[in-house]
């Protein structure tokens, strides 16, 4: 199907691959817009999603892929979790069927809305939630969608909004064609998911920059001036949208910056630049200075007043599983940072610690390079409790930098061991730097089990 055709053909056959949150959303929106929809999942579909499909009279299959049906599709919406190298994708590509992401599909039916799209290797969820909070406090009709919760397509189908704040992964950006945010935010780029990008950093970087590929000069590209990967790519391949940088290194004529310990945002709108003292920000740590600036800039590009931005930045509550204070037990603080699924996230977590740390880490290692955290581990971590099936890479890289390193295979055991190793005034930090799929369904389940184990101490 050509991109410029109308999208209301008589019963176009739409196949949705993967029946997770985004797939179900795409199926519901497709059905609503008159497509003939079929959902196919090679694994088991959660009961809650089966109910949604049944209620909407959408046929589906699980634990298999009927290739004769799939290859008869006019268009396919693919789950971000399915890699190009999967056999099913090779067959689809050979047939020449157009494949899009749920983000692209939802965008077709929400072009009248203002779209703020946020990507980056770290800090996406926090910045998305903070941006949403700013827009909500300003009284705007806004929805928070994408990786962070409800699917964009489901929101468009069931409760369309005037503004969408979308958290987007590189996998979702890989399958866009026309998607164009009014404000694109690129927070940072550090090695992650390289297994999906032929282990080439430049492929991953290019994927992140797809967020701006359809933007025009009327749109905004908000980016971190202190990130070498971003700056190198921008020099090589300039983009045409209006650039708004943010930095903690120097004052800027235009953008977000720190001056005299004040977070300032200077745009061409002539509004006073000063927003808030950096010491009053609700979210602590250097990485959250960047997140706060990016969210504040997004608000200002949509003419939200400084006081509303300030109100949000000083009173925002951090997300579950992201540097979340769980409890203090006999003087030991427990922090849940289960969403830290890569080394860079662990670096940010350790960088913000001011007390000695007993670190719980481990899981599915995506080819992690732990060199980046060695210095911080040596400086701040007194013991590491490994939680995973294969902890060898952690032992090989970090054992010499801590006095104690122990292995565990359950969250309960990990929390109990960490508590024994901690003294009054220490922090037990769950910041795994790895994916969770060896022992848990996802990082949320890992974080919930951590909180449960802490409460049972």
UniProtKB/TrEMBL annotation:
GO terms for cellular component: cytoplasm. It is an enzyme of class 6 (ligase). Belongs to the MurCDEF family. GO terms for molecular function: ATP binding; UDP-N-acetylmuramoylalanine-D-glutamate ligase activity. Its EC number is 6.3.2.9. This is UDP-N-acetylmuramoylalanine--D-glutamate ligase. GO terms for biological process: cell division; cell wall organization; peptidoglycan biosynthetic process; regulation of cell shape. Keywords: ATP-binding, Cell cycle, Cell division, Cell shape, Cell wall biogenesis/degradation, Cytoplasm, Ligase, Nucleotide-binding, Peptidoglycan synthesis. Pathway: Cell wall biogenesis; peptidoglycan biosynthesis. Residues 118-298 form the Mur ligase central domain. Pfam families: Mur_ligase_C (PF02875), Mur_ligase_M (PF08245), MurD-like_N (PF21799). ATP binds at residues 120-126. Residues 321-434 form the Mur ligase C-terminal domain. It catalyses: UDP-N-acetyl-alpha-D-muramoyl-L-alanine + D-glutamate + ATP = UDP-N-acetyl-alpha-D-muramoyl-L-alanyl-D-glutamate + ADP + phosphate + H(+). It is found in: Cytoplasm. Cell wall formation. Catalyzes the addition of glutamate to the nucleotide precursor UDP-N-acetylmuramoyl-L-alanine (UMA).
